[in-house]
Amino acid sequence: MPSKKVLFVCVENAGRSQMAEGFFRKYCPSGYEPQSAGTKPIGTINPLAVQVMREAGVDITNQTPKTISNSMIEEAFQIVNMGCMDKESCPALFVRGIVDWSIPDPKGKTIDEVRKIRDDIERRVRDLCKTLE
């Protein structure tokens, strides 16, 4: 039986959605698989996101920003929008049935601010996983 995909989306797919993918991989119940993508992905993951995730025991260094595709949307069991900094490219504008967490973008934030964002994402992912068990 194929796993149910949970898709975490944002604009650049370089911070929040990558952290959510990493935490979901760590905490998800069996039968589920995380994916993340963005509407305008950039070339690399935010180095501070990588650093704070490593501090939390999750390695996201091998994840890469990806462009959201119709197949990702169609195959997703659930889609979570992390929040939007760019209203014109916000995934919530064109994806139906999306859950919006409205988490601030870590881009340009201090390490302490990124840690707070990470902790919020971890809490939300753990809560989500509890609903899927």
Automatic annotation (TrEMBL):
GO terms for biological process: response to arsenic-containing substance. SMART domains: LMWPc. It holds the Pfam family LMWPc. CDD domains: LMWP_ArsC. Keywords: Arsenical resistance. Residues 4-131 form the Phosphotyrosine protein phosphatase I domain. The keyword Zinc-finger does not apply. The keyword DNA repair does not apply. PANTHER family: ARSENATE REDUCTASE. This is Protein tyrosine phosphatase.
